Amino acid sequence: MAAQPDVTLNDGRAMPQLGLGVWRTPAETAASVVTSALDAGYRHVDTAAIYGNEEGVGQAIAGREVFVTTKLWNDDQGYDETLRAFETSAKKLGRKTVDLYLIHWPAPKKNRYVETWKALVRLRDEGRALSIGVSNFNADHLRRIIGETGATPALNQVELHPRFQQRALRGVHEELGIRTESWSPLGQAQFLNDPTIQAVAKKHGKSPAQAILRWHLDEGLIVIPKSVHPERIRQNLDLFDFTLDEGDRARIAALDSPAGRIGPDPMTAAF
Ligand code: A2P
After folding, report:
1. d(CA 270, CA 263)
2. Is residue 204 part of a domain?
3. Residue 133: strand, helix, or coil
């Protein structure tokens, strides 16, 4: 298998472009799922306080060199609350430092994401969170935190898959020097039987999931597919012996739809 690529963040740090996502991975199986991924060669795991599985992730990554991301839950927004929530997450993960700490949602109705961001900047300055970023932020949220603090997030993790490609937001990220990370990169497996995806996969002798994940990599996105099955976990890493061509990418570009969002809209989400 060819080497897995890293991307360089705007703070100069390297991050493996592909990682294992553990949203909806039950707490009681997280340690074994993550262990099977690390044994298969994954070097990056993405969790969050709200997933309830940081302890299991922590057991699996103990003593291993793994890039670990976790996220601050909405109820913990606020300056002091954030500092406390970070300590709880770091403890559960069994780490003094976290490679990447994200604000999980902007939660605009709370209007606390600027002070929350200031706490993340402090955690970075103290060397506790080695890189900091956000999730589910729109262009206005990004410009506001940068305007008020002068600190630019390393990345924004957003829902992104062939049905919802976030082209406009990605343009803003490029302008601001922010990396884009795709959550639910497989569209939660809802369109693995899409004829275009199937055709691209077949052409390369790969599965539909592999074709979609290769698309993310070729688009320069950071990608964190979730699976609890060791066989699929291995399959989702077996992406480094092919690339999509211009024609494949044009066909997948045409699948983008304004109605393609699967998850909550960050502007109107109840939390
Ligand atoms: P499972 O965990 O049972 O393997 P996303 O990362 O977009 O949220 O997608 C996750 C969903 O896709 C899960 O339901 C997961 O199921 C499924 N999945 C992950 N990898 C594959 C694969 N290689 N083939 C088929 N389904 C997959």
Report:
1. 12
2. no
3. strand
Query: Quick one: pLDDT at residue 3?
Result: 81
Domain contains 211:
no
Q: Each residue of 13-49: pLDDT tens digit? A: 999 999 999 999 999 999 999 999 999 999 999 999 9
The answer, yes or no, to whether any atom of ligand 1 lies below 6 A from the CB of 249, is no
Residues spanned by the domain of 150 = 6-193+221-243
- Residue closest via CA to ligand 1's atom 10 equals 188
Q: How many domains does the chain have?
A: 1
- 124 in Cβ contact with 103 (< 8 Å): no
Q: Does 254 have pLDDT greater than 80?
A: yes
- Enumerate residues 6+ apart whose C-beta is below 8 A from 189: 209
In a domain, 260, yes or no: no
pTM listed for this prediction: 0.98
What is the mean pLDDT of the segment spanning 148-170?
Answer: 98
Atom of ligand 1 nearest to the CA of 25: 2
Specify the CATH number for the domain of residue 11: 3.20.20.100
Which residue of 47, 159, 186 sits with most ligand 1 atoms within 8 Å of its CB, as the best mutation to test the pocket? 186
Residue labelled with tokens 């839950």: 73
Helix (H) or strand (E) holding 90, with range, is helix 79-93
Is residue 99's pLDDT more than 70?
yes
Q: Where residue 1 falls among pLDDT bands split at 50, 70, 90?
A: low
Give residue 180 CA to ligand 1 midpoint distance, Å: 21
Decide if 235 is inside a domain. Answer: yes
